[in-house]
Write a structure and sequence with these properties.
Distance between the termini: 40 Å
Largest sheet: 7 strands, mixed
Strand content: 15-25%
Number of helices: 10
Helix content: 25-40%
Radius of gyration: 19 Å
Structural class: alpha+beta
Strand order of the largest sheet: 1-2-3-4-5-6-7
Oligomer: single chain
Length: 330
């Protein structure tokens, strides 16, 4: 790192990545231990119960991560899910800041469904610049550095550059495999608009679903970080979520962008950047987008004779947001 410890160069980010990968794998061992402990006990409550085993391991993983980061990078700031829940509110600054979800996909973690991970993102100058997502159940490691690409490492194999195959055109939502999530807010005000949105995405307009897009199919992995990783990989065409937090998406944003993916904020954010006379990049992840809790991530799309890949991503984003309803998360 340069003499000014708050200045990060590409070579510094490589060093931070090596550290973060080792940390993710260490944390992954603890996550597996926690999952095994939960599977061997009965009557495990929901995550919102602050005294249950799930929270115990959430906190344990975050404390491990915080401790190791503090030793290796004492000048770096820290934003974490459990720290936030306990009342710590660190403001976003230009300083290097780790943004961490110790266990993303907690319901999967409880049930033994092997799609839970640790998500470790690094924010610098108020934008995500590095991401590591590790699923210890499958031993899948996703990594990305701004300007240096993103990769998937399976077990002890060599890293594979993302996306895993050459991207294909995406002519419409009808050809798309979408990822959505129900989220933890199951109240009427949130659930009905979401349900109606899902109905239109999946429904057949020729068979009674007004505004139906008849998407190829819909998936829910139960983890924002892994949904985004799958978009980066090319296995999903897009992922939409309302209600996530920055620690859920920070690492994934870098991984997706480095794989040619596009990240969009809310309906309003997209409308503002695409209005007449606007010179704002619609895919720029500003602090407002990062903290806005509304995200749409679209996979890489190649250029065609009729439109560039970015134009295609923007077309898909507009079409998608014309189909789904906006809601305000709790």
């Amino acid at each position: 790192m340069s003499a000014d410890t708050q200045t990060l160069k590409p070579v510094d980010l490589r060093s931070v990545l090596n550290f973060t990968v080792k940390l993710a794998r260490t944390a992954g061992t603890l996550i597996l231990e926690g999952s095994q402990a939960i599977q061997s006990t009965s009557d495990v409550n929901e995550k919102k119960n602050s005294v249950d085993l799930v929270t115990e391991y959430d906190v344990a993983v975050e404390e491990l991560v915080k401790s190791e980061i503090a030793k290796a990078y004492p000048s770096f700031k820290f934003i974490g899910e459990e720290s936030y829940s306990s009342g710590t509110r660190n403001e976003l600054t230009n300083d290097p800041t780790f943004c961490v979800d110790p266990i993303d996909g907690t319901t999967n973690f409880v049930h033994g469904f092997p799609f839970a991970c640790i998500s470790l993102g690094l924010i610098y100058q108020k934008r995500p610049v590095l991401g590591v997502i590790y699923n210890p159940f499958l031993d899948h490691l996703y990594t990305g550095i701004e300007g240096q690409g993103s990769f998937l490492t399976r077990g002890n194999s060599q890293p594979l550059k993302l996306p895993l195959t050459n991207p294909k055109p995406l002519p419409s939502l009808q050809k798309a495999l979408l990822a959505i999530e129900w989220g933890s807010d199951r109240g009427k005000k949130n659930l009905i608009p979401k349900s109606d949105s899902f109905l239109r995405l999946a429904g057949d307009p020729a068979d009674g679903i007004a505004g139906g897009r008849m998407a190829h199919s819909i998936r829910s992995l139960g983890s924002a970080a892994l949904n985004i990783s799958m978009v980066a990989q090319g296995g999903l065409d897009l992922y939409w979520e309302i209600g996530c937090w920055p620690w859920d998406v920070c690492a994934g944003i870098v991984i997706a962008q480095e794989a040619g993916g596009a990240v969009v904020g809310s309906h309003a954010a997209l409308a503002a950047t695409t209005s007449a006379g606007s010179s704002i990049d619609p895919f720029k992840v500003t602090p407002d987008v990062l903290t806005g809790r509304k995200y749409l991530i679209i996979r890489a799309i190649p250029d065609t004779p009729n439109e560039t890949g970015r134009e295609a991503q923007l077309r898909i984003a507009r079409d998608f947001y014309q189909t789904v309803e906006d809601v305000e998360p709790k």
